[in-house]
Amino acid sequence: MNAPHALGRHLALAGFMGSGKTTLGREAAKRLGRRFVDLDREVESRAGASVAELFEGRGEAGFRALEEEVANDVLREAEPLVVALGGGAVLSVRTRATLRARAFTVVLDVAPATAWERVGGSGRPLARDADAFHALHRERRPVYDDVGDATTTDVDGIVLAAAGVHVEVGSLDVLGELVPGAGPVALVADAHVSGIHGIRAQLALGSRDMEGHEVPAGEAAKVPVVLERLWTSFRIGRDGTLVALGGGSTTDVAGFAAATHMRGIPWVAVPTTLVGQVDAGIGGKTAIDLPQAKNAVGAFHWPVRVVCDPAVLTTLPDAERRNGLAEVVKTGLLAGEPLWELPEPEQVRRCAAYKAAICLDDPHDRGRRLQLNLGHTFAHALEAAAGYALPHGHAVALGLLAALRLSGLEAEVATVRQVLAPEPARVDADAAWAALARDKKAVAGAPRLVLLEAVGKPRWGVEVPEDDVRRALHELIA
Ligand SMILES: NC(=O)c1ccc[n+]([C@@H]2O[C@H](COP(=O)([O-])OP(=O)(O)OC[C@H]3O[C@@H](n4cnc5c(N)ncnc54)[C@H](O)[C@@H]3O)[C@@H](O)[C@H]2O)c1
Ligand SMILES: [Zn+2]
Q: Which atom of ligand 1 is nearest to the CA of 298?
């Protein structure tokens, strides 16, 4: 089996001339916080001559030999890179073997006419004659099909593929094709969701040897006894794959079951809530709750695939959709784009891509990923003070107001009011403050928060005077 994602591996971009490998590769590298290597430029700088000069001087075979050397050197580097391969670099059998061993390869698809418009007559050695160019495109196609772990056309698509995330309307019905491998499958489904979408999932997995497990609907699934029931009833072994169907609660407990059953088996998340598709299903954090705290016990266990079918969200109750919309607004503020204005399937794709890039860069929550907590310090304090009777989305909407106000972004405060319209919370102010202080006690001194320098410019670990934080919290309470 090829690599399911680019976590800890190079992300290689392949594709024909004019498919955008360099432009999109540079952008993807920026999002993933990785160094970008453009193979053609690397060859040129090592040889001290341009690609055209090298073709001229050494012939295509000579150039290919040099290109193969450089490609294999680059792909041997330990630090995971984003590498834009030259259009013909994948012709080398040796390079293809190295890619399989050390990289996750995304092919950028481009129609030959578009490619010709971009690079035809540009002086590139293989883009001088239109007929020859089109013939070459036909000839190369099977090579790209062979080398590619995924195919896409844009930078969100690259990042999603790199994280193993598949966003497509109708994808639940082709789930069987999207679960990697051919071994047995254990389907773990939210009991309520199972009644609505379970049959489709089972039909789509029909060709696989399958066992089914149900967990209680929603948060009630995230308890030790449910986990224990899963452990003791699983029949699949290490060759099997767990498939989790449900919201964030289901993917959290099922993902943790996958992380621990036989010391870890692969799993596929199929999030069925907006929260799940834009947030909980992505990034490999799994957990259950204990009486003392939410998400008290868990593991980092990256799913081999995340299948987001925005069509399943049509059955979602309004209250659950509002929870998701709060995370969409949070992501839009972090990304600097009004993502909440997009149609829902696009919201899912864009938000999932934003989170996927950050989590790939910081899978163990040591730095950049902290930004995803925008508004959440306040939200958690309000939820705790309400004994978790306050919906998470409502608490996040209020938390965003506080974070934006402390960031001095009054226009965005108005936007959040307009889009999410959160009522002040009916909780005890002292209890909320105590919960916030408890949450922050791990770090000595003034509370540290995620704020925005501007929309699209998050800063984390910002020290804010205690009085300001307390005042901002109180403003959220009725
Ligand atoms: N691991 C992470 O990174 C992460 C991130 C965010 C949230 N979470 C966790 O996710 C959990 C919340 O998940 P959630 O908001 O997705 O809700 P949920 O899983 O608790 O589900 C909420 C309700 O919606 C129902 N439901 C789910 N999909 C449906 C559908 N398509 N149609 C009709 N009903 C449907 C469920 O049966 C349930 O009753 C929390 O426990 C939170 O801690 C985890
Ligand atoms: Zn949240």
A: 1
